[in-house]
Amino acid sequence: MDFKDYYDIMGLERKASQAEIKRAYRKLARKYHPDVSKEADAEARFKELGEAYAVLKDPEKRAAYDELGANWEAGQDFRPPPGWDAGFEFSGGGYSDGESAAHSDFFESLFGRGFSSAQSGGRHAGFQARGNDHHAKVMIDLEAAFKGATREITLRTPEVDNSGHVASSERTLTVKIPKGVRQGQRIRLSGQGSPGVGDAPAGDLYLEIEFSPHKVFRVEGRDVYFDLPITPWEAALGATVTAPTPGGPVELKIPAGTNSGRKLRLQKRGIPGTPPGDLYATLSITVPKADSDAAKQLYRQMEQQLDYNPRSTLGV
Amino acid sequence: MNQKSLTGVVLDERVEISLVELCDACSASVDWIVELVEEGVLRPGGQEQTRWRFSGACLLKARTATRLHHDLQINIAGVALALDLLAENEAMRRRLQRLEAEREP
């Protein structure tokens, strides 16, 4: 088991005052709160912070923790010295920060499971509590949003065995991703979270939908965007070209006199649903290489015969 | 291992849940949810409280609001402001992602 330096986690000196501890907690909690933070490890950091604060804000626990001495370093293999907590009396239960989180082995070796949440402990006779909710992200391809898909999701859940040890168990769920899901949407699977305590119901599982980056299409809400390259003559004269859509290729009419950057909307070709999203093709004119005499000749002919200055709006 | 295929509920505008179900899903009190409605954070359908129907988006908002209130000790006005700013932030982030992808094909 690794030693955890709670002062280091909170960015504090060991002599920090209770007011400083509270301030540091508030500041870091805002920074790492999983609903606010975009940091990849926000959830883990927030849990760790909650645990550090649970110890340091409580003068009894803090004194006991300090007694372990400053010689320990974070990550060092740790066993509590025998009788280390003699003379300290912990008044069990009763902190609210990070209450629903299971604490680390380190925390539990020091302060026991009595401090852990009643939800996972479940040692009080007749006690009932709804199980914790779980959250997971599911990566899907854009195509899955058009056709629906099935995904296997592996979840790691901390569980308490009969001897009170916390072990993490793995379970795999097969989940149907319905057609028409959008980026950032959540799917709720009732009763697939942690089991409840007593007769209380299990928690829920929330899956957040995230699209894998696509080489052609970009998604924003219900709408889908892509770049459609066209030739100068298609742009100037107008044309009907074949364009890709997530549902398969379609014929798309390019109006004469189109310029690069123009967006064409294909109604209801975005993410399906009620209402369905739209598909936008951003046109970009690509210029053929002048890599043959014939091609060079054509460009020179245009230069001579077309009176065209693309920079006229720039005043030059 | 559970290989049975599960079908969840997509939490969108088609979902309709009652006040009691919402409290349950958020582990929150009725009073707190009523406060969120009064603050304009949640906009249920239905006139009287007993007939309120909340959308999937309401459920997610209520859960986030409850966590922010509990974990960061933010009062209700602060929660409402934080939720507005988070939504705006998220929309801008998505837009930026799309525009950046557009510029660097």
Task: Give an overview of the whole structure.
The complex is a heterodimer of chains A (316) and B (105). In chain A, strand 6 and strand 7 form a beta hairpin. In chain A, the strands form four sheets. A four-stranded mixed sheet of chain A has the order 6-7-11-10. A three-stranded mixed sheet of chain A has the order 1-5-4. Chain A starts with 5 loop residues before the first helix and ends in an 11-residue tail after the last helix. Chain A is an alpha+beta fold and 316 residues long. About 7% of the residues of chain A have low confidence. In chain A, helix 2 packs antiparallel against helix 3. The radius of gyration of chain A is 30 Å and the shape is elongated. Chain A has three domains: 111 residues, DnaJ domain (Helix Hairpins); 78 residues, Urease metallochaperone UreE, N-terminal domain (HSP40/DNAj peptide-binding domain); 97 residues, HSP40/DNAj peptide-binding domain (Sandwich). Helix content of chain A is 25%, strand content 23%. Chain B has 105 residues and is mainly alpha-helical. Chain B has one domain: Multidrug-efflux Transporter Regulator, Chain: A, Domain 2. Helix content of chain B is 59%, strand content 5%. Chain B contains four helices and two strands; from the N terminus they run E-E-H-H-H-H. In chain B, helix 3 packs across helix 4. The longest helix of chain B has 28 residues. Chain B is globular and about 50 Å long. The termini of chain B are far apart. The mean pLDDT of chain B is 89. Classes of the chains: A alpha+beta (316), B mainly alpha (105). Chains A and B meet through helix 2, strand 3, strand 4 and strand 6 of A and strand 1, strand 2, helix 3 and helix 4 of B. Strand 4 of chain A pairs antiparallel with strand 2 of chain B, so a sheet runs across the interface.
